Structure formats: C-alpha cells, structure tokens
Amino acid sequence: MKFAVQIAFACAVAIASCSPPAATTETAATSVETASAPAEGVPTREFLIGRWGDNGDCTKDIAINADGTFQSYSGMGGTWTLDGDALTLDGPNGAFLLRVAVGGNDTLMIGQPDGSFGISQRC
Description:
By secondary structure, the protein is of the alpha+beta class. It has one domain: Lipocalin (Beta Barrel). It has helices at residues 4-17, 28-36, 45-48; strands spanning 50-54, 57-64, 69-72, 77-83, 86-91, 94-104, 107-111, 117-122. It has an eight-stranded antiparallel barrel. The protein is globular and about 30 Å long.
C-alpha cells in the first residue's frame, strides 16, 4: 500500500508539521514570490508541483503535477490533494496521508503517520 517514494515524501512532511507557519505582512508583489518559494512552514500547492527525490537522489522521484495527479518512478500514480500541511496521495492501493513542511527553497520535510520523517529535494 505504501510507495517507497511516498514513504520518503511522508518523512519530509512529518518534519514540516513541527514548524509553525511564519507570520507574514506581505504585499501583493511578495505574495507571488511566496507562492513559488514559501518561507519555512506550510507549503503551498504551487510549491509542491514538480519532481521530488529523497536524500539527494533524483533517480527515485515522484512527480507532483498541477492537474492534481502524481507519478512515482516505479510507475505508481494517482491523485493528490493538499489541505494545510496535510498531503494526501490517493492511488490504486488506497490513500496515504503525509504531513509536509517547507525546509527551504527546494527542500520539503515529510512526516509519516508512524512518526518517522524524511527530507525531499526538488529535482
């Protein structure tokens, strides 16, 4: 039921859920910048879109697509939704809930339901 990439992605989410979202007083101009590269805290939908690998390895990646679908390196895929820091990956083997947080411009921390965590980087 769990995909290897999802597990690593889940780890990154767990770490992220421990970080409170940063308070902001942004103008409209900086809001656009924040949407593409949010400060540490809760990621935006736009921030998640792209290819993500784990521990510096982009050969075992997961692609998070703008149309609400995802595809892992192993060929598994499905749909994804983001609600706050809760990322749900829903595929043929069921739904997998992860907690995610931004660790930097191209880093995502993922937490799994079992309390383990990991770090993913943009590929």
